[in-house]
Design a protein that fits this description.
- The structure holds two protein chains of two kinds.
- Chain A has six helices and eight strands; from the N terminus they run βββααβαββαββαα.
- By secondary structure, chain A is an alpha+beta fold.
- Classes of the chains: A alpha+beta, B alpha/beta.
- Chains A and B meet through strand 6, helix 4 and strand 7 of A and strand 4, helix 4 and helix 5 of B.
Chain lengths: 142, 213
């Protein structure tokens, strides 16, 4: 089921990880699961998301800060969703055979040769990284 | 025939070493399955009678950049331009071996393909840094051009100050909408073609002469 931000009404697809950081439009932390057929109900019937929540008796999904989650028995805090361009890694191995590529990082990195090892570690040719010192400076300035 | 080509190659290598002038290298970039290899094959075939690589409906068929050197294109006015064409692997932000499994490829082979495709994208992005002098950005005109990859990649190409030509491919298909691509990238010339059928290739060559010449 898709969800909607209770503050601004922005829609998010089911399983959207964007909302883990709060609504990107208004920063709202409360979301409501809405049935697919009711997705435009708030607009069509001029109701607030709160009113729809009362009608459908759905629980709000509230995004809490990391600290409060730690107390709930789980030792490991869940990794925060990070925007693609903030990631340090240019290639993330999600599973063996599943990779996430950070195109911007790949475009600016000095790593010339990347090879995926059989155990999904990736090997980088250090020699090729040392070749263009000038460009490294440019990167650090950024 | 072979001897002729070999002699020609040797001669052109000798000449380029002598003149020390590097031909501009044009990279064909774009998302997977946009028709990059089909277009590269057509360009190479049109001007040299050769081919560059196999084409497949399975995404990431091209997992290593392939290059054809010394292609001279010309128009009726006598303008000509010699360039190297580089066909690159489709750029994407996620590669999953499951994608290949769906096409009936065995799991192990699929994982290997995913790995190779990942290396290929990394390599293609690195080429963009210093080895490429101009870009043909290839898009499937039946699909929405507003994707993260397209916007990011065109942005990266612009930040490198490389001349760009955007190609709206697959106009032979009924639901192709090259206008959408023109609207999405009004800052660049957009040429609508069918790499498969060879429609509108003349206009593409004309623009290549203008943009990369």
């Amino acid at each position: 089921m898709p969800h909607k931000c209770t503050q601004c009404g922005r829609e998010f697809t089911d399983g959207s990880t964007v909302i883990l950081k709060g609504c990107p439009s208004c920063g709202g932390k409360k979301f409501l699961y809405v049935k697919v057929q009711d997705i435009h109900k708030d607009v069509l019937e001029e109701k607030t998301i709160g009113q729809i929540a009362e009608e459908t008796k759905q629980q709000f999904l509230e995004i809490r800060e990391e600290k409060s989650r730690n107390g709930s028995g789980k030792e490991q805090p869940r990794p925060r969703s990070i925007e693609m361009y903030d990631r340090i890694e240019s290639i993330t191995v999600l599973n063996p055979g599943t990779y996430e590529l950070n195109i911007e990082k790949l475009a600016e990195s000095d790593e010339l040769v990347v090879r995926m090892g059989s155990d999904d570690k990736y090997l980088v040719d250090i020699h090729s990284m040392g070749m263009s010192g000038k460009k490294k400076k440019d990167r650090s300035r950024k | 025939m072979n001897l002729f080509i070999r002699t020609k190659k040797r001669l052109s290598r000798f000449l380029s070493a002598f003149l020390k002038k590097r031909q501009s290298r044009i990279g064909i970039y774009g998302p997977p399955n946009a028709g990059k290899t089909t277009l590269s094959n057509r360009i190479v075939r049109d001007w040299t009678g050769d081919a560059l690589g196999p084409v497949s409906e399975i995404p990431h068929e091209t997992r290593r950049a392939r290059r054809k050197e010394g292609i001279t294109i010309s128009n009726q006015n006598g303008n000509s331009l010699t360039l190297d064409i580089v066909d690159t692997p489709g750029v994407t932000t996620k590669i999953d071996y499951q994608e290949f499994v769906e096409y009936g490829i065995e799991k192990e082979e699929a994982i290997k393909r995913a790995r190779e495709a990942t290396e290929g994208v990394a390599e293609a992005m690195h080429w963009l840094r210093e080895d490429i002098d101009g870009v043909i950005y290839m898009l499937d005109a039946t699909l929405d051009p507003f994707t993260q990859v397209n916007i990011m990649l065109v942005g990266i190409i612009e930040s490198r100050d490389l001349p760009v030509l955007i190609v709206a491919n697959k106009i032979d298909l009924p639901d192709a909408a090259p206008q959408r691509i023109m609207k999405a990238f009004p800052q660049h010339p957009v040429i609508a073609i069918s790499g498969l059928e060879g429609d509108n290739m003349e206009e593409l060559y004309e623009h290549m002469l203008k943009v990369f010449g």
